[in-house]
Structures are given as structure tokens and as C-alpha cells.
Design a protein that fits this description.
By secondary structure, the chain is α+β, with helices and mostly antiparallel strands. The protein has four domains: about 5-85, Alpha-Beta Plaits; about 95-390, Aminopeptidase; about 395-485, Carboxypeptidase-like, regulatory domain (Immunoglobulin-like); about 485-580, Immunoglobulin-like (Sandwich). The protein contains eleven helices and 26 strands. It has helices spanning about 5-15, 70-75, 100-110, 160-175, 180-190, 200-210, 270-280, 310-320, 345-350, 370-380, 380-390; strands spanning about 30-35, 50-55, 60-65, 80-85, 115-125, 130-135, 150-155, 190-195, 285-290, 295-300, 335, 355-360, 395-400, 410-415, 435, 440-450, 455-460, 465-470, 470-475, 495-500, 505-515, 515-525, 530-540, 540-550, 560-570, 570-580. β20 and β21 form a beta hairpin. α1 packs antiparallel against α2 (about 70-75), α4 (about 160-175) crosses α10 (about 370-380) and α8 crosses α11 (about 380-390). The radius of gyration is 28 Å and the shape is elongated.
């Protein structure tokens, strides 16, 4: 493309008429540009401009949608830019299914597959009060089961229908192959798989109904100036700048901006609906589909790195090798995102502990439908990989109250991973269940809750392709049982564990003594009543192994349930939980 001098370029482009002069003003003349990263000046120096970034390939190029005024400012700051085609031939957003057609399709699935599908309403859009459909896929869709949740969502931005098609392609594949493909059947039976194809239904409907191919509508339809009509140069809020993680430093405070973040985090009913859903479901993994850029974005670029940085990149790389670029040459890139802009993926990870990725699909906003469907199909295998990855490696289990036996929402901390930058990872309140995906290795796990005795479980081994089961009973401090501590350094006993756990008729109690010590190993029930003394006497330093045959002193089998094993030494007492099957 022949380049023009930037000042002449701005003057020339500003004379191009709007597609609909009645509904647009000068600020809505938008151009797609590619900012080259081959100069010394960092793209980060443009942060104050709050640009509508499309994709950013570190050290290479950055694409953005800008106004004529923004283009002039970027050029004045010394950046080299290229103008990209705004409306490639054959592009027509009305080729894609409308909002009503997608809702009809989801209703068809709910009617056709009632044994595994539940269609519900996530919430309603901000201005037009349109239903935001959410579909749950599981072998008992009407029940809240003790199973991991995985989420696939799309269309935060109205101009990105390929993301919607990605979610529908995954859903359709699972529905069509359930009962015939063992892998698909197991995924559906063992998980709760959720789909939100259209988080921004009103923005998408507005785009399609008006065939706004230029410019592409991005936001929802929030009436920012409260005049009762849609002003394209002022109304709407960018939903993917409205989450409460980096909100104040990201997006724009100007309602006229295409990346306007809103008046406060979660000000929009669409993002609040996803927030409320996530607080209940606590998904383990999530993909949120956008366009364009052909890249997988992960959290985060900032220093220090996120606690799960190595794991997050490993999973992203595993998806990338399964995700070809349009045309089949190469694969999607894996890139960090700054997490200072109010993104969904950053809030989901930082607050909820959900490893969510933003998948920037395709190489243009609205490719022809045939290309868009191919892109959605190309994304399928990467999505299915997540359904395998949720099975491990990692740890999972239940946390119970030692007195009542009820589930407890407690903190799960991996001592080898610094997590000061994120909210505590918690077990759920319904089952006391937690999931923590990890890389293979040996970890120290600390389980804590205010009002309970903290437990530290050392040498928890995480193996390839499976979840290590780690169930814990937390004893209330006011339970009538003496408060024991298992914090490292307070006891001559370290590395205590019980295996197998859960146990049937036999179990092994293993621990390490740093010095010779009198040792009593007792099994008690949740009311503090002694079931059996497994050992009493002096033991030398070193590794110790005490066997338990699952019988009481009288020879009767111990009833199935939750028990506590106390290892009492001269340095303190360690507590282990045991589930008797």
C-alpha cells in the first residue's frame, strides 16, 4: 500500500462521508491501523490515549481502531503506522445468525437433549432488557452437583460474532457426540459445562439490525447522556473494560470513547450477571472468545508474575499447538496481557481463581461467514483440551468442620506459590469442595479459616494426568478439643501423612521425627472421642510408619466417616484427617 504523509492522510480521510450521516458524527470515523513495534519508543507510552486495541503481538505489531484525531496524535508521537482495509470484500455481519436465531437454536437444543441440557437466563441487558441466555451441559443438568465447572463465553463486543460461533461449535460437538464418543460422554458426565454465547445481546442486535459494517459497534447501549436515543458518538459501555480488576487504570473515562469503562466496576447488568454466576459456580477453567488477532492472551504481563504463571503458560501452549491460524500456516501465539484494563479474564483469575484465557480468533473482526465458521471449527480442539486438563494434574478434595461434619469454605494455600497479588483460593460452601490445578511436583498445602485450627499438609505429591485427593477436617477452636497446631517449625514431627486416604480396612500413618521423642498416635472422632490408640512410646529420630487395620479395640470395624489422627510428640501435636470408607 502506498503510504501518504500522515498530515495529508488525516485531511484526506476526514473527508470520507459516514455510512449514515443521520446517526453518526465526525468522532465515529474510525480506521484500523497497524502500529509497528520496530522503533525504540514503547507502545506503552500510548497508554494515556486509551486506544481501542485489537491485538498486540509483543515486539512486532499492534492493531488498533482509531479516530482521525487519534491517528494524528500517534503519528506526532513518532510511531510508524499502516492503514488496514476497513471493510474487506464479502463482509456482511447479517450473514451471521441474529440474536433471535441463536436463542431459537438454544431452545431447540434444550428440547432435543433435555437429559443433558438446561437453558436458563443469566441476566438481562442494560438498556433493552434482553435476555442473556446461559446453557448448562451435564448428565444431571437440573442439579448442582459436586463437579468442576468450565465456562465458554463470547460476544463481549458486538462486532465479534466469531466468538459466539466458537461457543456454539463446542456445544454442538458435545451434544452430537454424547453417548457415542466415550470421551465426550465422560466430559459431560463428570463436569458442569457452561455456555454464554452472547454476553452483549443488545449491542449485537443493534449491530445486525442496522448492518453496521463501518464502523463496527462494540459497546452495549447504555444511554450515557440519558436522552432516550442511541448516540453512536457518546452512548454505550465497553463491557470488557467494566470488570473490577484494573478498572480504574484501564479503559477510558470519556463516554465518547469506544473503550469507555463506565461509571464504576460492574455498573452494567451484563458484567454483573457474569459476576454473580461466577461467585456461585467458581469455574476451574474458562475461555472467553473475541476477535481478532489469532492469539491466546493470559494473565498477566505485570511484575511480579501471577502465582500460577508457569501453569497458565503451559496450558496456553497446549491449546496453541491445537489451534491453527486462518489458512493453516502456523498456530495462535501465546501472549500476556497487562491486566490493568478491567478485563474479564483478569477478574476471573485474580478474584475467583479461575484460569480464564481471552482467545482472539480470526484475522479480522467480521470475516465472511464461511471463514468465520472455519475459524470456529479450528478452535474446537483447543477447547476440548481444557475438558481433559480439568482432570489434572492438581489437587482436589473436601474441607469439613471437625465438630459438625458440615462443609467449610476455607482457604487453600500452596506454600510454594506466592499469592499475595490474588484473592485467597477458597473451597465452596455447598460441598466444601476445592480444585487447584498444578504442575506435577511435591507441594506443601496450608488449609485455614478464622476460628479453626490451621492445618499444614506437607509432601503432597501431584502426578501427571490426575488430581490428587486431599480431604481435610478443620477443628473449631471452641470445639472442646485442645487447640493443636500443625504450623511448620512448631513440632519435631514433620511430613505427616495418611495413605491410602480414603481408606477401607487398612491405612498407614507416616511421619518424620527430627529428634528422639515420646510419641502417641491416636484416632479420634469428630466429637473428640478416642477410637483407638495406634502407638504410645518413645521413637528414635527418622522416618516412622504406623499401621492401622481399621478395627476398634474390641475387633468391630470402624464405621465409615471422617476421623482425626493425632500425632503427639514433645514438640507439639500434628493433626491429620482420615476418611473411612
Amino acid at each position: 500500500m502506498k503510504k501518504l504523509h500522515p498530515f495529508l492522510l488525516v485531511f484526506f480521510l476526514s473527508l470520507v462521508p459516514c455510512p449514515d450521516a443521520r446517526s453518526q458524527t465526525k468522532s465515529n470515523h474510525k480506521y484500523v491501523i497497524r502500529i509497528r513495534s520496530d522503533q525504540k519508543q514503547s507502545i506503552g507510552s500510548l497508554a494515556d490515549m486509551n486506544l481501542d486495541y485489537v491485538s498486540e503481538h509483543k515486539g512486532q505489531t499492534t492493531d488498533a481502531v482509531v479516530s482521525a484525531e487519534e491517528l494524528a496524535e500517534i503519528s506526532l508521537r513518532g510511531f510508524k503506522t499502516d492503514i488496514l482495509p476497513m471493510d474487506p470484500p464479502g463482509v456482511n455481519v447479517t450473514q451471521y445468525p441474529s440474536y433471535d436465531q441463536v436463542v431459537d437454536q438454544l431452545n431447540y437444543y434444550a428440547i432435543t437433549y433435555p437429559q443433558i441440557v438446561k437453558l436458563d437466563t443469566l441476566g438481562y441487558s442494560e438498556t433493552w432488557q434482553m435476555m442473556i441466555p446461559v446453557l448448562k451441559l451435564s448428565d444431571h443438568p437440573e442439579l448442582e452437583e459436586d463437579e468442576p465447572a468450565i465456562l465458554f463465553d463470547g460476544l463481549h463486543h458486538a462486532r465479534e460474532p466469531v466468538g459466539m460461533e466458537c461457543t456454539l461449535t463446542i456445544l454442538e460437538h458435545l451434544l452430537r457426540n454424547y453417548g457415542s464418543d466415550p470421551r465426550v460422554t465422560n466430559w459431560v458426565n463428570d463436569n458442569e459445562i457452561w455456555f454464554i454465547p452472547m454476553i452483549n445481546p443488545e449491542g449485537y442486535k443493534y449491530l445486525v439490525d442496522n448492518n453496521l459494517s463501518s464502523p463496527w459497534w462494540r459497546k452495549n447501549l447504555h444511554d450515557n447522556n440519558s436522552n432516550g436515543i442511541i448516540d453512536q458518538d457518546y452512548d454505550g459501555i465497553d463491557l470488557n473494560r467494566n470488570y473490577d480488576w484494573g478498572w480504574i487504570t484501564g479503559g477510558s473515562g470519556d463516554p465518547a470513547s469506544w473503550v469507555y469503562r463506565g461509571t464504576n466496576p460492574f455498573s452494567e447488568s451484563e458484567t454483573e450477571a457474569k459476576r454473580q454466576w461466577a461467585l456461585v459456580q467458581k469455574p476451574v477453567l474458562s475461555l472467553t472468545y473475541h476477535s481478532y488477532g489469532e492469539q491466546i492472551l493470559y494473565s498477566w504481563l505485570d511484575r511480579p508474575l501471577s502465582p500460577d504463571n508457569n501453569l497458565i503458560i503451559e496450558i496456553a501452549d497446549s491449546m496453541s499447538v491445537r489451534l491453527p491460524r486462518t489458512g493453516g500456516i502456523g498456530n495462535y501465539s501465546v501472549d500476556p496481557t497487562e491486566c490493568t484494563t478491567g478485563y474479564s479474564q483478569c477478574w476471573m483469575y485474580g478474584e475467583m481463581g479461575t484460569i480464564e484465557y481471552t482467545v482472539e480468533t480470526a484475522n479480522e473482526f467480521v470475516p465472511p461467514l464461511t471463514v468465520g465458521m472455519q475459524v470456529a471449527g479450528d478452535n474446537l480442539q483447543a477447547a476440548l483440551y481444557l475438558l481433559d486438563r480439568v482432570r489434572g494434574p492438581g489437587i482436589t478434595g473436601h474441607i469439613f468442620d471437625g465438630k459438625s461434619g458440615l462443609p467449610v469454605s476455607a482457604r487453600i494455600k500452596i506454600m510454594q506459590l506466592a499469592d499475595q497479588l490474588v484473592s485467597p483460593r477458597m473451597s465452596d460452601t455447598t460441598y466444601g469442595r476445592y480444585y487447584r490445578l498444578l504442575q506435577p511436583g511435591t507441594y506443601t498445602v496450608l488449609i485455614s479459616k478464622v476460628g479453626y485450627v490451621t492445618q499444614t499438609i506437607e509432601t503432597v505429591v501431584v502426578n501427571e494426568n490426575k488430581l490428587t485427593e486431599l480431604n481435610v477436617v478443620l477443628q473449631p477452636i471452641a470445639s472442646g478439643i485442645e487447640e493443636y497446631s500443625t504450623e511448620p517449625g512448631l513440632s519435631v514431627c514433620t511430613g505427616a501423612r495418611i495413605y491410602p486416604n480414603p481408606a477401607n480396612q487398612e491405612a498407614n500413618v507416616e511421619f518424620q521425627l527430627s529428634v528422639e521423642s515420646p510419641v502417641t498416635v491416636r484416632l479420634i472422632d469428630l466429637l473428640g472421642r478416642e477410637i483407638r490408640t495406634l502407638h504410645q512410646g518413645i521413637l528414635p529420630p527418622g522416618r516412622q510408619l504406623i499401621r492401622w487395620n481399621g478395627k476398634s479395640n474390641e475387633g468391630a470395624s470402624v464405621k465409615p466417616g471422617l476421623y482425626i489422627c493425632l500425632i503427639e510428640t514433645k514438640g507439639g501435636t500434628s493433626r491429620l484427617s482420615l476418611i473411612k470408607q
